[in-house]
Structures are given as structure tokens and as C-alpha cells.
Amino acid sequence: LCGGTHVGNIGQIGMVKIVSESSVAAGIRRIEAVTGQAAEALLWQEYRNLQEIKNLLKLKADEQAGPKIKELLDEKKVLDKQLQESRLSGLLNQLSATLASAEEIGGCRIMTEQLDGLGGDELRQAAVALREQASCVAGLLCSVTDGKVFLVGFASDEAVKSKKLNAGKLVKEAAACVKGGGGGKPELATAGGKYPDGIGKAIETFVASVKSALA
């Protein structure tokens, strides 16, 4: 073990505190450490940080912070899940109303909706639910989040079997308008893009393609 600096005896090094360890190549590990007064200062800083955490958690002197932190993280996971379910429920109520008033051609509804701020997973969950709410429906859900475009297309079983609609192909065509790509199954497909200004054109392309297939 050599740090490039040599000392007369080990006592000159004093306390050693390892701060990180990593692999730099096959069979070679990199260890970073501080020594002497710097090591003592780091330990004191870690101690103060731990005491601050324990004070925030209102822990007694002999209580460990780890179990309490784990408990809080577990609670956060539950609350995050409940929040997501609540958001999805509200979203579905909104989309159900949109679906009910959607244009209908040849007995098949055509639905599109832009929902900025939502991620691909949320759009997908909504699409899965919506395709079960009408006997024949084809739809496209869009979103711009952090400059990224998300597209999710869906088609009900009847739309796929009787009307020969294919969400995978429809979404792929729409994705080209947002300088992206994607695809999937005839029932459900996803795509991404990097050109938010093209969403309007993507929706127009999707609707035109569905109408052409239904004609």
C-alpha cells in the first residue's frame, strides 16, 4: 500500500479513515483515505451529522438511527403508491369523460389526449384501463415531460380483430412526427421522441391513419 508519500515511522501518519473504495482495473482496487487531523475532523463531522439526524428523528441517545430511517422510507413507499393510485384514479375519470365524447366512425371511437407532465408508465397504465372501457376504440395519449415526448397508443380487442387496427404501426407513424421511434403490439404500443413541437402533427397523423383504416 503506497500513496506516493513516505514517512519515517507509522506514528507520523496518525489516524487513517478510509473514505472510498473502487475498482480501477481487473485485480486492482483504489482506496482513498484521509489521515491525521483531517481524519479526526472527518470523524467529528460524521458524528455531528449523525447527532443532527437523531435529533430530527427525536431519538434517544441509545437508539439507532438506521431502523427509524428504514421505517420512514417504508412509509414513504406506501404513501407514494397511494398518491400514484389517487392520481391514476383522477386521470381515468378525466379520460373516461373524453372517451365518452370521442368521435365515432364505423362504430369505433377515436380518442386522443395530451397530458403534459406525466411519464410513460402513467400513460401506459391509463391506456390499459381505457381500452377496456369501450367495445371498439383506438386512442393515443401524449405527454411532454422534461423536454421528452411520450406516446402511448392503444386499441381494444374488437378494434384489432374486427377493424384490423394496429396500435404498434399507428404509434410508429406518429412517433416520426416527434423525431422518435417505438412500437409494440396491436393492442398497446409506446414510443418516445425529442421534438415536442411535433405533438400536434403526431396526433393528426394518428387520427388520419385510424380514419383511413376504418374507411
Automatic annotation (TrEMBL):
The keyword Metal-binding applies. The keyword RNA-binding applies. Gene3D superfamilies: 3.10.310.40, Threonyl-trna Synthetase, Chain A, domain 2 (3.30.980.10). Residues 1-32 form the Threonyl/alanyl tRNA synthetase SAD domain. Pfam families: DHHA1, tRNA_SAD. Its EC number is 6.1.1.7. GO terms for biological process: alanyl-tRNA aminoacylation. It comes from the Bacteria. Coiled coil: none annotated. GO terms for molecular function: alanine-tRNA ligase activity; aminoacyl-tRNA deacylase activity; ATP binding; metal ion binding; tRNA binding. Keywords: Aminoacyl-tRNA synthetase, ATP-binding, Ligase, Metal-binding, Nucleotide-binding, Protein biosynthesis, RNA-binding, tRNA-binding, Zinc. Belongs to the class-II aminoacyl-tRNA synthetase family. This is Alanine--tRNA ligase. It comes from Chlorobaculum parvum.
